Fold:
Amino acid sequence: MTNNASLRDTQFVLFGANGDLSWRLIVPALFDLFWTGQLPERFILQGVDRTTTDATALAAHYLLGVAQHSRHGTPDEATWQKFANKIRYIQADISDATSYAHLHEVLTSCDTDWGCPTEKIFYLAIPPFLFDTVVSGLGNAGHAQDREHVRIVVEKPLGHDLETFRQINNVLTRYFNEQQIFRIDHFLGKETVQNILAMRFANPIFEPIWNRGYVDHVTITVAETLGVEKRGIYYEQAGALRDMVQNHLFQLLCLVAMEPPVSYDADDIRNKKVDVLHALRPITSENLSDYAARGQYDEGWIAGTHMTGYRNEPDVDSRSNTETYAALKLYVDNWRWQGVPFYLRTGKRMAAAVSEISIRFRDVPHHAFPASAGLNTQPVRLVIQINPEQGIVLKFMAKVPGSELRLQPVDMRFSYQEAFQTESPTAYETLLRDVLASNATLFMRADQVEMAWKFLTPILETWKNEPALDFPNYAAGSWGPESAESLLAADGNRWLIPTLKKPS
Ligand code: BG6
Structure:
């Protein structure tokens, strides 16, 4: 954790200051950092947007967002006022070069007032089609030149495919160097996701068995009960593969499968993650059905509430071919993982909102116990719980007390909440704190994003060119389509119901 004494004076320039992302996630997280003393002493939140408003009205608008979405709820007036005093606003037309010249003057005059070159963070909370305009505007006005003090933050979707990602990246790298570019994947800011590295590399006991010799297969599940909400327009163009797999699920895969890094430095870790994607066995349009399954939710019931089918959601085509569920069977072709399947699945409107990684170990090589003792035998599994439980569960066999020899599966649990009795920072808090400290470890490097797009291209293209004939093919409130079961059944495996029980 960074403490604020090590943070330099900062001007945080928020493009899209009036938008939903700023209101719901970014400003509440900045406020939480402020509350916990993790913003630099001297800090300005410089909002930029096209709407007619001023700093006072913007602060009042943010207060509602903070009340609803910050970890600390509605702040007391004195605390809020201190934070609100840091907020400034510039109304700007982002297509006009003079806006960037004006911004330059504003930022420089603060440097002069404070008597030092401040850190300048440009956060693009704007739709991707505006990236080019804003990045070029900033670059042409000389904002990117100070390599040491200037950073730019962008969020997904980083492209629609390999080609469009490259276009975005070309614009960014025309003006900024890689060290200045922070690409957010909010999953990497989640405590439990970061804990995968701690668990694997701060303990000597897991690494010796973390390989093909001991691991039978790995499943990664990120299931949501949410539908597409009001995001039909975006989601129709995206689908589950782009929205979740290309970024979040691949990040989880990389953390589970990567080799030990030499250090916790950003590039040491990111190099090892890229190696995983580099080692993925390609999926082609010819072998696609053996390695990938897609689904789209139909109407159904979740927790007693009737849910409409995807095709009836607002802004969704009534004959849509967009997948709301995707499952992949992946092989990481290297010494450690040869022959070990990694099964990934994600979907909307599933039976439960749960994210977890399950490492299924191989069976014992020889059954020494009488058959009657082991009727209940289950494979040993290590489950890394990301959401809603946060912890680690080891599922293994134990003897049932009594004179008879009977075996039964039991759970050994580690719960974050119980162990630390403290609330975790939100993902955005963690990531913004790292942007302030210029620590890029939890951010995506261009080559990783590019490799993820490259890998998925044949699947994206085939799914686009060959519309699914069976959509909708899973009921809201179920665990997904039959075809996803077949992916695993072909290997004699099956998806297990995630480990939902709360630690007692
Ligand atoms: C976003 C996706 O990146 O992640 C959403 O666009 C998804 O569709 C969300 O709902 C899930 O994130 P979280 O943190 O709620 O699990």
Observations:
- The chain has a mean pLDDT of 94.
- Residues 77 and 283 are 56 Å apart (CA to CA).
- The two ends are 29 Å apart (CA to CA).
- Residues 186, 224, 226, 243 surround 6-O-phosphono-beta-D-glucopyranose (CB under 6 Å).
